[in-house]
Sequence to fold (132 residues):
Amino acid sequence: MIERHAIHKRIGPAALVILLLGLFTLPVFAEYGDVILNHRAEKEGMRPVIYPHWFHRIRFRCKVCHKELGFEMRAGANDITMADIIDGKFCGMCHNGQVAWSVENCDICHSGRKGLQTRIMGGHQTGGPGRW
Fold:
């Protein structure tokens, strides 16, 4: 049997703190470039979705989501339902339990604090002549 002290030494204090913090699901604050989706979430008893746009953008070209998956390039223009996602549309094309986590992990996406409005953090205008 391994002693408690030996386990603590192996894991290390920093890993132990991270593990303990991971047990609590706290609301996340959106960062610059994140898309907040809250047309339906709070009305249906869920926290708003914070979509980390740049996290996805560094992995995929714009066309993957905005052409192949059907997302319009304007905050609030997409009518996304959980039924759509479960049916493999929009986010559900990748978040299906095989490519990325599936809908059973609600708090990963529905992580915003209550009251956040649908928008892109940092603005909704591009630096160029057009709008998103």
The longest helix spans residues 13-22.
